[in-house]
Amino acid sequence: MYREDVMAETGTRFDDEYNAAVDLIARNLAAGRADKPAFIDINGTHTYGDVERLSNKVANAMTGLGVRREQRVLMCMLDTVDFVAVFLGCIKAGIVPVPVNTRLTAKDYSFMLDDSRAAALVVSEPLYPLFEKDIDAHPDLEKVIVSGADSLGHKSLSDLIAGASDSFEPERTRLDDMCFWLYTSGTTGMPKGAVHLHSHLIETANLYAKPILGIKEDDVVYSAAKLFFAYGLGNGLTFPMAAGATAILHAGPPDAAAVVSILRDKNPTIFYGVPTLYGMLLASGQLPKQGEHALRLCTSAGEALPAELMRRWKEATGTDILDGIGTTEMLHIFLSNSADDIKPGTTGKPIPGYDLRLVDEDGNPVPAGEMGTLEVSGPTSAIMYWNQREKSRDTFRGPWTRTGDKYTVDADGYYTYAGRTDDMMKVGGIYVSPFEVETAVLTHECVLEVAVVGQPDQDDLVKPKAYVVLNQGHSASDDLAQALIDHAKAELAAFKRPRWIEFVEELPKTATGKIQRYKLRL
């Protein structure tokens, strides 16, 4: 679907001159929400008027330090209103913010500073030690700004904000100007900087948050996924601001105890999670039951949500989970279940405004009912990977963006996840989805988490092997391993059944909670 069609469908009208940050803030001020809570973080409540003033101060501070239009500012920041102010303030000034994962290594950050040619770094105080060793080794890096009580010998963000004017004339940007970058997770090499435009933020809200989630100004939202993720950025910043809602920001890790506390004490109406976290919350035994929380809707992304987890969550909380898929390249979810159309075990149907297709290894559409690699076309696709010409050409193919996810689609239009392209197993000459095998094993009451990979047998033929994390109160044994294999037999064809079960304390995961199956194949 072309942008003109999307604009007509959603009612959005972009002038040729357009600034994403100005739009997200100004729409709330114009609606009389200057005094309405926009963000709640560890430091208190911040209104939409506060966000306007803080972002203007950051814009003035950055330009005052000599950071120019389209130069990059690397942001390694915890989820507080400082993140919001820096992200939006940079965009107002035509500067390009580059939020990065706060759980990476010094090597990763060094690469990103050089790859982005960042002119400035804004880093939360607890994270600065990861940059300290070679902070002077980056020729393009001119300014280091620290968010926190101690600026550690660098510029203090709070001091810069205190000394800056709260009035700012935004840079005259256009809807197709470069706005911000997000680095991919780097599961197949070094991270890649996906370049996004000013139009992309509001498009995700217009296409997904408003029609699918029905987000409104009286919603209070909480995203366990952090703001530096594409999923979290939409959940915790773009969507609430687009609707005039309130977002809860949590600077700490989203462990079960922290999430339960927020669900009980802060009363969010929308919760955004990932499958692994939903499993942890169910296993904690502390999850608030129906009537003990304010949730009206939950979402899941990052990996496919097993039908069994969805069932358990609904039984425990009375709340539906809308499973969907998005990518860093597409910025947010483009394929999803919706509140009035949930089919457990599937990722739902394409969101209006996006076109999807399944292709074979040569890029040709696969016949109906066959597995293929998912490609998506829509108005929020990144325009390229920075400094990665060949990888850009492999991923961005005309109007289509290649995801690397394997799917099937049924006659009713529901898409079912099969796994990442490099996670698929070929058993007896037939491709087997690890997710299908995992789903069968997960229905056993003893199982908390499971990951399935291919492993050669004594004849060097690949067979499925399941790595299993048990629920509390259950102990690993040969008898239980056989019981799990027998349990899977009822749901799987013979060649798909796990040949081996290995019990583990935990599964390797990315910072987003995705299972790293490739580490289990080593």
TrEMBL record:
Residues 436-514 form the AMP-binding enzyme C-terminal domain. Keywords: Ligase. GO terms for molecular function: acid-thiol ligase activity; ATP binding; CoA-ligase activity. InterPro entries: AMP-bd_C, AMP-bd_C_sf, AMP-dep_synth/lig_dom, Benz_CoA_lig. It comes from the Bacteria. PANTHER family: ACETYL-COA SYNTHETASE, ANTHRANILATE--COA LIGASE. This is Benzoate-CoA ligase family protein. It comes from Hwanghaeella grinnelliae.
